[in-house]
Amino acid sequence: MTRIALGLSFAGTRYHGWQSQPSGQTVQDRLERALLQFATQPLHTLCAGRTDAGVHGLMQVVHFDTTLQRAPFSWVRGTNRYLPPDIAVQWAQAVPDAFHARASALARRYTYIVLQSPVRPSLDAARVGWSFRPLDGAAMRAAAAHLEGEHDFSSFRASLCQALSPVKQLAPIVIEQRGAYWRFDFEANAFLHHMIRNIMGCLIQVGQGLHPPDWLREVLQARDRDAAAPTFAPDGLYFRGPVYAEHWGLPTRTAAYDWLP
Fold first, then answer.
1. Which of 52, 136, 224, 258 is catalytic?
2. pLDDT, tens digit, for every residue of 2-25?
3. How many other CB atoms are there within 10 angstroms of residue 113's CB atom?
4. Are 83 and 97 in contact (CB under 8 A)?
5. pTM of this prediction?
């Protein structure tokens, strides 16, 4: 028995999130269907981090166990042959049995892209979030600083969240403007359901001048979802992938990153 890890990129617009559902219209369903066609045996995948409907993946990592012996490039090309155009395996690698795509992850990384424009997105519709008002970067950075470190993030937790604890360790949020686009980079040991989209809703309201930066501290301390802004759209959210210890020898990024503004 061999354990194989795959790095996967996908556009989440047409899918009902990562996790398999009876509808069959999820990224996991499509991947496992393609693996079945290539390997001629069912293969169950376990992922590094589940994504919601409409959220994109730059490097989702999965693993599965198989008795088949195939070269890494064969897993890539063979699986991609049966995948739709908006999902692609980027790399494949044999890993030790001790490796687990989810449990071995030290942290997870996401990026949110926002278009600042008086006109809604067109060519990049469903690929970016949108603010029709100008955004104040200094105000958003000051607000984001209140979230750095270990906190109870209940105010940013969806009602259906299944996490055992709302306490997470969040690295400093990096906020940069590149032309008409704003990029928000997040990294944490783990995220709650809708946590980033709920934080984004608050940061955008601060950036638009609807609240002062210190409001985010009040929201955090409230530990109440009703204290925060509405959940922001999934369109501009990208799962950049997990962080693993170097000894696993897995890629840390793929070419899929390079198009981001």
1. 52
2. 999 999 999 999 999 999 999 999
3. 20
4. no
5. 0.95
